[in-house]
């Protein structure tokens, strides 16, 4: 029987809070994947996954927002049912819808960077509506560009079919989520201590 | 979802299983030809046999992917103009769809036979140091809080319906659900951070021990063979001097 001695290296308070938020936002993305709304202008029921990407970028900032979405993907890859319809596994990431999923960390980073004007997190009250909208539109562009690329690479679709069937038809529903995200960021309903 | 059991796949080390999974995905992408996919189908059959999982049970959990798999070949068959149908264009998307199906089946075998705790230990082994510890911790917390947050959201939607909230515009309904979810996230993460520090959250906890056995050697040999098969076309096309850079 061998024994081992080592001193405990504690995690400091701010990092512990950041890690807790990263994990909870990743779990929220997983929970949002289950919430679907019927929307007349969309060919498939709309889930709130992308809204979680928007909120992670806005509320956690570019760095922790991107980390949070990365944790979401890793959690799904190792088998937690966090993707749409309770799916999981590396197969989903390299499946036809893998491009959308793989774009989430980058999209959250872009949204956070544009909204906060740099890597530092500011209070959302100081961010104007035009800047918020610009940040979210940039995020949507990243998600659907990589999503369509994923449909071509993993699903074998041609450029036209991927862009029309994989991006254009979903844009009206994304506009609704974008409006909801701006409403959340501008409202006093969510209070967050720095 | 994980299903407890004692099949050969359950007894394998999670690292060996992850290696097979990744090597298989690479090999399937490198050999998306009828002959390559026949070989890959044999590997999938072996994986499912090791996990004692009938393919229809594995597929049952992945119903959502089926429309996407069918859409590729169908969309490409239709052309705008006479003769309207071009079945020969559907061959490449059909092969891609079948390849995806195979990759998904191997992943499903992994998911069914590996508890999250083992995946977490494997993650911390793959990514050493503080990033690995943080990643393992966060994935564990996602597993813990996923059902909690899902129940929070379900309660919100039930309460909203009871107050005729389902007649509100979609944007407003999304906003209400998301605001509630966010509120719970901040609330729970503040309490969680305090609770973790109270329990001496550290960068160097004692990990569950991972051990490679004889069966794992077989799995690792399979992974190596798949990896070699995956890079073989690269070596053949670019020559042996260039391929380590690829």
From TrEMBL, chain A:
Subcellular location(s) of the protein: Cell membrane
Transmembrane segments: 18-39, 46-65, 71-94, 131-154, 161-185
Cellular component terms per the entry's GO annotation: plasma membrane
UniProt keyword Transmembrane, yes or no: yes
Chief place where the protein resides: membrane
Domain of life, per lineage: Archaea
GO molecular function, one term: biotin transmembrane transporter activity
Membrane topology of the entry: Multi-pass membrane protein
UniProt keyword annotations, A-Z: Cell membrane, Membrane, Transmembrane, Transmembrane helix, Transport
InterPro entries: BioY (IPR003784)
Family: Belongs to the BioY family.
Protein name (Swiss-Prot/TrEMBL): Biotin transporter BioY
From TrEMBL, chain B:
Lipid bilayer topology: Multi-pass membrane protein
Keyword Membrane: yes
Coiled coil: none
Compartments reported by the entry: Membrane
Keywords: Cell membrane, Membrane, Transmembrane, Transmembrane helix
GO cellular component: plasma membrane
InterPro entries in alphabetical order: ABC/ECF_trnsptr_transmembrane, ECF_transporter_component
Statement: the UniProt record of this protein carries the keyword Transmembrane helix: yes
A Pfam match: CbiQ
Membrane-spanning ranges: 20-50, 62-85, 91-111, 217-236
Name under which the protein is recorded: Energy-coupling factor transporter transmembrane component T family protein
């Amino acid at each position: 029987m061998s024994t081992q001695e080592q001193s405990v290296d504690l995690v400091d308070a701010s990092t512990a809070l950041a890690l807790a938020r990263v994990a909870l936002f990743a779990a929220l993305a997983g929970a949002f994947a289950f919430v679907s709304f019927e929307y007349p202008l969309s060919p498939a029921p709309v889930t709130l996954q992308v809204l979680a990407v928007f909120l992670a970028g806005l509320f956690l900032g570019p760095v922790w927002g991107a980390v949070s979405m990365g944790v979401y993907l890793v959690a799904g890859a190792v088998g937690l049912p966090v993707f749409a319809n309770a799916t999981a596994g590396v197969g989903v990431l390299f499946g036809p819808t893998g491009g959308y999923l793989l774009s989430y960390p980058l999209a959250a980073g872009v949204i956070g960077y544009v909204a906060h004007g740099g890597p530092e997190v500011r209070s959302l009250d100081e961010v104007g509506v035009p800047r918020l909208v610009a940040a979210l539109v940039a995020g949507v562009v990243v998600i659907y560009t990589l999503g369509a690329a994923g449909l071509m690479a993993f699903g074998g679709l041609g450029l036209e079919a991927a862009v029309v069937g994989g991006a254009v038809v979903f844009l009206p529903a994304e506009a609704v989520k974008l409006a909801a995200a701006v409403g959340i960021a501008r409202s006093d309903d969510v209070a967050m201590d720095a | 979802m994980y299903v407890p059991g004692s099949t050969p796949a359950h007894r394998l080390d999670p690292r060996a299983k992850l290696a097979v999974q990744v090597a298989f995905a690479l090999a399937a992408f490198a050999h998306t030809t009828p002959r390559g996919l026949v070989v890959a189908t044999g590997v999938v059959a072996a994986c499912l046999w090791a996990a004692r999982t009938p393919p229809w049970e594995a597929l049952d959990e992945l119903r959502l992917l089926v429309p996407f798999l069918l859409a590729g070949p169908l969309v490409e068959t239709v052309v705008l103009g006479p003769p309207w149908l071009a079945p020969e264009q559907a061959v490449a998307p059909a092969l891609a769809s079948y390849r995806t199906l195979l990759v998904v089946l191997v992943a499903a075998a992994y998911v069914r036979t590996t508890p999250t705790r083992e995946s977490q230990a494997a993650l911390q082994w793959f990514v050493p140091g503080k990033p690995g510890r943080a990643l393992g911790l966060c994935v564990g917390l996602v597993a813990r809080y996923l059902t909690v947050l899902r129940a929070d959201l379900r309660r919100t939607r039930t309460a909203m319906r009871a107050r005729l909230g389902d007649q509100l515009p979609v944007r407003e309904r999304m906003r209400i659900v998301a605001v509630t979810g966010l509120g719970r996230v901040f609330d729970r993460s503040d309490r969680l951070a305090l609770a973790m520090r109270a329990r001496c959250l550290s960068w160097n906890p004692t990990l569950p021990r991972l051990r490679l056995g004889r069966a794992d050697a077989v799995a690792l040999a399979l992974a190596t063979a798949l990896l070699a098969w995956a890079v073989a076309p690269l070596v053949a096309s670019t020559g042996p001097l260039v391929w380590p850079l690829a």
